[in-house]
């Protein structure tokens, strides 16, 4: 049986609703974020999708989302944390730079301000999730992470044109991947809310 990874973005947070930059900093789930996470849990149950192991970022918004989806035990991993945006943390999203036209991300912009580059985020996400999938008896794995970190993981396995065509990337969406021989293959986006 092919191993499956279900990589989920956390529910809506206070900073999401206020359009604030939220990376290494944290903010709580909104009532909508909680409700949406519960709906995803109900959807997964109705579809018969279960997990033998579950993981979340060490940030509260991710672990809380997971706890609203399932009551099963889980492990928190720092490698699943959101992109660190340095001194831009908590500031208005209007301060975000334009995407690097070659990399289709923020590139190295935040490094000069004490944050991470896109490559650094991608490397730790790939390393963390590969290590998880290499653990014994990991056939159906749920990992709750963040928008920027999940996007950079996805970009490692899917080119930009395919991302634009195939991925609807919202709070509480799930990116489903198959895994074999230390390679992830994007299967589909599960958008249980629409």
From TrEMBL:
CDD domains: HP_PGM_like. PROSITE patterns: PG_MUTASE. One of its GO terms (molecular function) is phosphatase activity. It comes from the Bacteria. It holds the Pfam family His_Phos_1. SUPFAM superfamilies: Phosphoglycerate mutase-like. One of its GO terms (cellular component) is cytoplasm. This is Histidine phosphatase family protein. It comes from Bombilactobacillus bombi.
């Amino acid at each position: 049986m092919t191993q499956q990874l279900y990589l989920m973005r956390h529910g809506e947070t206070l900073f999401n609703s206020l359009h604030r930059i939220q990376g290494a900093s944290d903010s709580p789930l909104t009532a909508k974020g909680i409700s949406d996470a519960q709906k995803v849990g109900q959807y997964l149950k109705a579809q018969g999708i279960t997990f033998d192991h579950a993981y979340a970022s060490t940030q509260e918004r991710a672990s809380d989302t997971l706890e609203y989806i399932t009551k099963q035990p889980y492990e928190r991993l720092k490698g699943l944390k959101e992109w660190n945006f340095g001194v831009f943390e908590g500031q208005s999203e209007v301060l975000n730079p334009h995407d690097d036209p070659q990399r289709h991300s923020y590139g190295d912009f935040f490094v000069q301000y004490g944050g991470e580059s896109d490559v650094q985020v991608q490397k730790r996400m790939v390393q963390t999730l590969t290590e998880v999938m290499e653990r014994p008896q990991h056939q159906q794995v749920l990992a709750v992470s963040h928008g920027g970190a999940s996007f950079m993981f996805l970009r490692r396995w899917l080119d930009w044109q395919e991302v634009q065509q195939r991925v609807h990337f919202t709070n509480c969406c799930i990116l489903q991947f198959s895994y074999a021989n230390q390679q992830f293959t994007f299967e589909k986006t599960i958008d249980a809310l629409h």
